[in-house]
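<given_protein>
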Amino acid sequence: MAPRSDFLHFFYQTTNIDPDVLSLEVSMKTHFWPAIASAAILLAGCHSNKQNGDVVSQQFVHKYGFGVTEQEWDERAQDGRVITMLKNGVKVTRSFENGQLHGSTTYTFPHSSVIEKELVYDQGTLLKEVLHDAGGIPMREDLYEFDDRTIITLWDALGSPLSIEEYVDEPLMEGKYYTPEHELEAQVENGFGTRIKRDRSGLLLCKDRIEKGVIAERISFHPNGQIQTVSRYQDYQLHGEQIKNTPSGKPLMVMQWNHGVLDGTKTIYRNGIKIAEVPYVNGLRQGTELHYDDFGTLTAEIQWKGDKKHGISKFHSEEPTENEWFYKGQAVSNQKFEMLENREKLIAELTGSDSDR
C-alpha cells in the first residue's frame, strides 16, 4: 500500500522526541490505516449496527427503491442501500450488491446533509475515499489502483488543487505541487525532486527533498516564512544534523541524530547566543554538559554517565566555584564518590566486566 500524505505535523521538543518524526509517520507511511479502518467497519455490515448503541434508526431500501424490513433485507440478496442515523447526528448511507459494499458509502457531518466522507467500493474492494469540508468542498481524495498505486489529491479552501501525488507501494514516485495562484511550483519525477506542503489557505508549511521515493531532507517554516527546522532523514528517521530556528530566524537548537537517536552534541541558544552544550551517546547524556551566560562566560559543568549525573558538577560565578558530587544520579560527598568509584573498579577488575558502562 502507498503512504498517506499528511496534513500535519510539527510539535515541539524539549524532550528527545522530535516532532518531525511524528510528521513523517503520518505523511509518508500511514495513509492506508484510515482506509483499512473504514473498510473494516463498513464490511462488518448492517448486523454490527443492530448491536451498536449509537444507532438511532435504520432504513433498508431495495435497489428498485422500495423499503424492506430488516428481516426481508437479511433474507434477500441484500441489494440496495442501508441508511443509518447515529446518535451524534451523522447519517451513514451504504450501498450493497449481493451483500457486498458496492458503489458509494457516505457519512454526513453531524446534524447536516453535507457529506463529510465518501467511500467508493467495487464488490467489497475500496476504490476511492474523499473527504470534504463543512462547505462541501473536497479536501482530499485517495484513489486506490489495483497495481499498488495510490493517487492522492489535496485541495485548498477554494477547491483548487494543492498537490497531486502518486505512490507505488510506499515510495512517492510522481508529484505536482501548486502555488496559491495555481501555478506549478515543484514536482517529483521518478522518485526524485521537491515536495511542497501548504495548508488549505496556501500557507507554506515545508519543503521536502525526495530521493528514491522517500524523504531525505525537510525544511519547515514558521508562519512568517522564516525557516523553522532543517532536518535530514534516512529510512524515515532523523539522521545527521538538525537545526531549529526562532520565528525571527535566530538559532534555537542544533542536534546530531543517528537513525532517530540523539548522538553527539546538542547545542541550545537563547536570543541567538549559545547557552548550553549537552553531549549524547546513543540517546543518553554522556560526558560534560556546559552552560554559558549571555556573554559566553562558562557558568556550569555537569558530568553525565548513562543519562545520570555522575562525578563533579561545577557552578561558576563571581563567588568561589561551587562543586557538587553525584554517583549514578545520587548526590554524595567527594569522599563517598571516590570510595564508590574505587569499589566499582575493583569489582570490574575481579569480574572482568567494564566499569564504564
In short: The CA atoms of residues 315 and 322 lie 5 Å apart. The mean pLDDT is 86. The longest strand covers residues 100-108.
